[in-house]
Structure prediction request, 164 residues.
Amino acid sequence: MQDSNELSTKLVEVLRRIDFDERYYSFYEKIRNRTTPSGLSKLDWEKAISETSLVFRYNSKERFFAAEKQFGPCTIVFNIGFRHDEVELALGVRTPNGWAGGPFTVLANSIGLSRDPNFSPMPPYPTLPFSNAEQLREIIRFAMTLYGDAERAVVSSKLCKQQK
Prediction:
């Protein structure tokens, strides 16, 4: 079995090829000034994610929605969490050789550092704020696009190939 650091390094390399970090931070910069409380509830969050092509289940203990897709020996996990009026996204990959992944913010930061050791965005781990239902849907559309590109990149990479 490979160690998790090796799998994490490979995941960073795969996501770097789709400019995961640059796309995440660019989107955050576009929406960062949203500060008005949305007043949206769990029902509003459920409605927004129900418009996606994935089937999510709610983890009430951890308070996030999770979707998993199986690709041969590989499982890709996509989580969407809500904290007040912010969205936190996470991506995970389970393979026969272990697990790699984490919050989009951590992945984006790791990828940025792999490009440039002096990379230091502010804030380093930004979640995505929303002030109303339309802004929430915009975030979910962005998340689904970035997740879809990441899924295709991971599935076509050696990460999801059975190791001998």
About this structure: Residues 105 and 118 are 17 Å apart (CA to CA). The chain has one domain: 4-160. The chain is about 45% helix and 25% strand. Residues 4-160 form one domain.
